[in-house]
Design brief:
By secondary structure, the protein is mostly helical. The chain is built from 15 helices and four strands.
Length: 344
């Protein structure tokens, strides 16, 4: 089953990524074109679609880029100081740090006036901001529901409901809710003077609506996992700290968080993997628009496939595979593994 449903499609899509698909009489034809599909994406006619339209880097962009460069420099310093130097370690960290710097440069180079983010930058935006929002809110709700509060069971049930709804259903629900003319909350929009505002025609508001819908769907997942982590703590440690006069903040900082940190790192890793595959919400809410402003890499690949450009679709899919694999492996090595070692 693994060979048939995982390895075989992976190999076939690799062949398609270096080929050109063409319909011919009586069937179809694949013609080997080498790296032409990837060349079109990075330096050719499809560069604007994948990488975006470049513009002058704004001041905030330079600040972000310098901050990311400082973090990368710190990572290099810690590796040289605390870890044994190996060829594999150098190559792996060069790929990880290089990709982080490239993505940071790509984003700040396309957010300026006259610039336009491509599907790669938009996907990174969804993953970074979306997972951050979901983790903060989900963990906060989980901590509150682990306390002795009124109607705790009711809130647990309510927070679990969005996870039961299909992504397509959530997408159509939010498409209806954010309709500022006839939607169920349109009177509120009208009262706030926003009735004439078209969120779908503004790139940033379209992206934010996608993030809000995605967060509503996935906050319950983080909530459930973190709730189990909070409730699995030994009660005697918490009671002993409380008797010794530790404040609630001190208990959370010194006892609760270190014990749940490995679970938190793991659940974020799972959400990052899933977030890279987002397609339902941007497809139904905005159809990737305005233009390609809210289009994710998965939607980009799907649109190319729908237009029968199977080679370009496979090339985009392999770009997504490379980026998501490097980021997830790096997150596991730099965050998940240290958190597990610390908890021991």
């Amino acid at each position: 089953m693994i060979l048939g449903f995982s390895i075989f499609p992976l190999l076939v899509s690799a062949w398609m990524a270096v080929s050109r698909f063409k319909l011919i009489g009586g069937g179809y034809q694949f013609r080997f074109v080498g790296w032409l599909n990837f060349k079109k994406l990075f330096v050719g006619s499809e560069q604007f679609h994948l990488l975006g339209t470049f513009a002058a880097i704004p001041v905030i962009g330079w600040i972000i880029l310098l901050a990311v460069a400082a973090l990368v420099g710190l990572g290099v310093y810690r590796y040289a100081k605390d870890s044994p130097i190996t060829v594999l370690g150098i190559v792996g960290r060069a790929i990880s740090f290089g990709l982080v710097l490239f993505l940071a440069w790509l984003i700040v180079s396309t957010i300026g006036t006259g610039g336009q983010m491509g599907s790669l930058s938009t996907t990174i935006f969804y993953v970074t901001l979306g997972v951050l929002i979901q983790f903060v809110i989900g963990t906060g709700l989980a901590w509150l529901c682990s306390q002795n509060i009124t109607a705790r069971s009711f809130f647990r049930l309510v927070f679990f409901i969005p996870l039961m709804v299909t992504p397509v259903g959530i997408a159509y629900t939010f498409r209806m809710m954010v309709d500022m003319n006839v939607g169920p909350i349109s009177p509120i929009w009208q009262a706030l003077g926003l009735g004439q505002f078209s969120w779908s025609s503004n790139p940033w508001s379209a992206r934010m609506v996608v993030i809000v819908g995605d967060s509503w769907q996935w906050i319950p997942f983080i909530f459930l996992v973190m709730l189990a982590a909070f409730e699995s703590q030994p009660k005697d440690e918490l009671e002993a700290a409380s008797i010794d006069g530790a404040s609630g903040l001190q208990i959370f900082r010194d006892i609760t968080w270190p014990s749940v940190a490995p679970v938190a790192a793991t659940v974020v890793l799972i959400r990052v993997i899933e977030a890279f595959k987002i397609i339902d919400l941007p497809n139904i809410l905005t159809n990737g628009g305005p233009g390609i402003a809210s289009e994710s890499l998965t939607l980009h690949s799907f649109i190319q496939w729908r237009s029968l450009d199977l080679g370009a679709s496979s090339a985009v899919a392999y770009v997504l595979l490379f980026v998501s694999t490097v980021i997830c492996v790096s997150f596991f090595n730099f965050v998940v593994s240290p958190a597990r070692r610390t908890s021991r």
